[in-house]
Amino acid sequence: MSEAKPTLRLRGKLILEAVLHCETGLHIGAGKGSLEIGGADNPVVKDAFGRPIVPGSSLRGRLRSLLEHAHGLTSPEELVYLSRRRGQEVRIHQSDRPDDALCLLFGRSPSRMERVRGDALDGRSATPARLTIYDAPLDLDSITAPMREFLDDELTEVKSENAIDRITAQANPRTLERVPAGARFHVRFVLDQLAEDDHALTGLLVQGLRLLEDDALGGGGSRGSGRVRFSACRLTWRGKGFYLGENGEVELLAGGDLGALQALVRGEGFAAALAE
Questions:
Q1: End-to-end CA distance of the chain
Q2: Is 7 among the domain residues?
Q3: Domain annotation covers residue 24
């Protein structure tokens, strides 16, 4: 007999808000659809007002990648192809295991997917993503007047780099637009609690954030860009009664760092605090 699938229903939402600090320049590219004369070869992504943002998709993808590596889920047998275009292959972890925490956190759809090695994956489990990550806006006050005096643009800098040909020693210059060190962004994560044990996925998210602090976000990480840090973490719980207008939200943590957040979610009373 097949194991009965748990009934999913909204029990509430955990909302994590924090400040993302750029410890070094940050480059999250906007592509090369258009180049301005005298502009950087690789511009950063911006909102409709020309202000840099950290896309939720960039944070989500980086966290997923770091967690897949940390949990040993990047062997060819664990990876499937999202795209097989030559030179643009995209391989991610995907499985049909009911206890696969990463698939629960990031979601999966039932479909036939080609594995990097082995038989195709005939996914039969549709799992809604528990985690939502929003685009992070720039805190304009973090770009101070003294900083603006030395920036190439009002809000960004241009980093010049050279790639050296190993045979001819010819330099191939390139420029990289970056958000400067010292900039801050406001990040927001929402974790839907749909099953009894979903509170454990909070620890997985925090692990990914801690890994990110010792890795890099965006492009040029191996060349000095993309070091970030999280502070002012605020975790609140909105149970089902909140959305019915019966209860208020419950603040579980205010102003802590990732260490304090991790201690909270690993504590014995964390699950009990998430009352509907």
A1: 32
A2: no
A3: yes
Quick: pLDDT tens for 36-91: 544 556 899 999 999 999 999 999 999 999 999 999 999 999 998 888 888 788 99
Cα 72 to Cα 77, 80, 208, distances in angstroms: 11, 15, 14
The pTM of the full predicted model, rounded to 2 decimals, is 0.91
Torsion angle defined by CA atoms of residues 210, 215, 219 and 220, in that order, rounded to the nearest 10 degrees: 150
Q: Please return the burial class of 124, using the count of CB atoms within 10 Å of its CB with bins 0-12, 13-18 and 19+.
A: exposed
Length of the chain measured in residues? 276
Beta strands in the chain (DSSP E): 12-22, 53-54, 79-83, 90-93, 112-113, 121-122, 131-133, 136-137, 157-164, 171-178, 184-193, 228-239, 250-256
pLDDT at 33: 47
More confident residue, 37 or 242: 242
Residue 20 amino acid letter: L
Residues 6+ positions from 119 with CB-CB distance below 8 Å:
none
Kindly provide the residue ranges of all beta strands, DSSP E only, lying in 12-78, ordered along the sequence. 12-22, 53-54
Residue 251 lies in a domain: yes
What range defines the domain where residue 162 resides?
12-72+128-273
Lowest mean pLDDT among 51-60, 65-74, 128-137, 173-182: 173-182
Number of independent structural domains in the chain: 1
